[in-house]
Write a structure and sequence with these properties.
Layout lengths: L4 H23 L18 E5 L4 E8 L2 E6 L2 E7 L6 E4 L3 E8 L2 E8 L7 E8 L11 H10 L16 E11 L2 E10 L5 E3 L4 E5 L10 E4 L14 E3 L4 E9 L14 E7 L7 E7 L5 E4 L15
Parallel strand pairs: 13-18
Antiparallel strand pairs: 1-2, 1-8, 2-3, 3-4, 4-5, 5-6, 6-7, 7-8, 9-10, 10-15, 11-14, 12-16, 15-18, 16-17
Length: 305
Amino acid sequence: MSIFKPAVCAAAMLAIGLSACDRDAESVPPPVEPVPPIADAAPVTARYVCDSGLTIGAAYRDPESAQVTWRDQVRVLRSAPIPSGARYIDEGVEWTLSTRDNIETGVLTRVASAGGEVLETCRRTLPVVVTAPPVDEAAATKAAQDAPGGVLPSSPPCKGGQLALSSDGGDAGAGNRVAIIGVRNTGTQACSLTGYPAVTVQDRQNRTLSAIRSETTPGSYLRAGQAPAPVNLAPNAKAFFDIAWNVVPNEGQGQTACPSVTRIRATVPGDDTSVTLAQALTPCGGRIRISPFRAEAEPEPASAE
């Protein structure tokens, strides 16, 4: 018996080792097929932190494609229809995006023909960006000089802490809506406003609706195309701007209902202090249009030639 004992032990150890190897092989998911590096790969513009501790880099070079980098593999995926959010796909994986509370979630999944399992769930915080173009001072001054009375900026710029917003009327027609927003100088010193306010919108829980972008539009609802002009505000005086939006869902993009806005936040050029106002909007198409500041609440339409 002592002659065969080493052989028996060796066989047992070999069996244990093979069993461990089998378990390790079962626990490792099949690899995603390798993708050669792309020579003209675009720089990564968005990074997502995944639940696994890894990161995914993405570049959205155009509306029809996305470049996704995961585990040192670079894949160029094509856009595919989805009821909400965004979806990009190739023959091996798909990358879907959804946004809630200013957090964008990306899920990387094998396509159904390759198993369909989720590979990564990742997130990033979206920057809140509201575009307010730089003021062309020369154009603004010329517009003020050409206007009746020649309004010129004779006061320092207004700051958010000395302003209050109010709802001062509006208009509606053919699926379009306009809200006129008053901006009152609550301070004891005169100040001036020139250009556009930066406006973001919030829902009932005061969450910023980052999917709704603000676009600046020269002029007002009744006077399109006018360049921004300085508005001087004595204490307790008001300036005005418009918020315009459309209420018809974009069915071509799968939109059946439009988001509900209950509050707006605005900042004035050169200052980061925001001013808020309870204001109900239902903007469709993912955008609102902002006019420049003006001195009148609702000017008369220009007479027809």
